[in-house]
Amino acid sequence: FNEINTIPGSFSFYLWEPSGVPFGELLDRLVSIARRRHRERNGRVQTYDVNLLAEKSLQGFKAEEPTQ
């Protein structure tokens, strides 16, 4: 576990060195994650994964001809 504590300064950044992630990139990732979570929890815009232009939608609601 790595605690992010800004009071004494950034002394624990060395703990991430073995992962190969540079400290600046780590900070960028953490800020991006925090911003995304904030948007997801507090946003008013909802999105739905719907393809309105799918093949069935373009055909409309015409009745199919009976097959014999």
Q: Shape from CA axes?
A: elongated
What is the percentage of strand-forming residues? under 5%
Distance N to C terminus: 69 Å
Mean of the pLDDT scores? 74
Instruction: Give the helix level as a range of percent.
Output: 25-40%
Q: Point out poorly predicted stretches.
A: none
Q: Sheet with the most strands?
A: none
Count of alpha and pi helical runs = 2
Radius of gyration: 25 Å
Total strands: the figure is: 0
Estimated structural class:
mainly alpha
Order of helices and strands: HH
Q: What can you tell me about this protein's structure?
A:
The chain is mostly helical. The protein has a domain at 12-46. It is built from two helices and no strands. 0% of the residues are buried.
